Amino acid sequence: MPCENCLNRREFLARSATGAAIVAIVACGDGQLSGPNSIQRVPPGGGNSGPFTIKVADFPGLATVGRLVQVGGFQAAKRTAASPATFVAFSMACTHAGCLVDIVNANEFDCPCHGSRFDVNGAVINGPFTGESIGPLQKLATSYDPATDKLTIG
């Protein structure tokens, strides 16, 4: 007896495969073409709630001159000289859309939102793939006390 709302096996399998593909796509990403990692945006003001202090020894990467190290939720620092020890710090907010940039190989910042890249000094290597012009990453004030090995940022 024919059924007017019934599916044959071919239609059932086709609809099931389509549904499974949609579920897999939704589960694998954040709706962006950036991959499975979620993209973070830095809060207004660069995520700085004022100056903060770190103990340099707690961040082993800061022992090496020129090596970028994320030292706060939205800040990175690098040692610029060994003796006397000097440091520079940057906001990790991309100057295009405020996305949190990633540190790559301890010597470059890459933005997962639109492909911007910045060198170890925060200068633009290339701007976003949207073609817009952007500025360098924001430098943050630093103060180092060698007696306590404390670095104040902001």
- Unreliable spans are 21-37
How far the N terminus sits from the C terminus, by CA atoms, comes to 78 Å
CATH topology: Rieske Iron-sulfur Protein
Number of domains: 1
Q: Helix count?
A: 1
Kindly estimate the percentage of residues that lie in beta strands according to DSSP: 25-35%
Total number of beta strands: 11
Report a brief summary of the structure:
By secondary structure, this protein is an alpha+beta fold. The protein is 13% helix and 27% strand.
What are the defining features of this structure?
four-stranded antiparallel beta sheet; 154 residues; alpha+beta
Describe the structure.
The protein is α+β, with helices and mostly antiparallel strands and about 150 residues long. The chain has a single domain (about 45-154), classed as 3-layer Sandwich (Rieske Iron-sulfur Protein). It is about 15% helix and about 25% strand. The chain has 1 helix and 11 strands; from the N terminus they run H-E-E-E-E-E-E-E-E-E-E-E. A 4-stranded antiparallel sheet has the order 2-3-4-9, with no helix packed on it. Strands 5-6-7-8 form a 4-stranded antiparallel sheet, with no helix packed on it. Strands 1-11-10 form a 3-stranded antiparallel sheet, with no helix packed on it. The protein is elongated. The chain starts with 8 loop residues before the first helix and ends with a strand. Residues about 20-35 have low confidence and may be disordered.
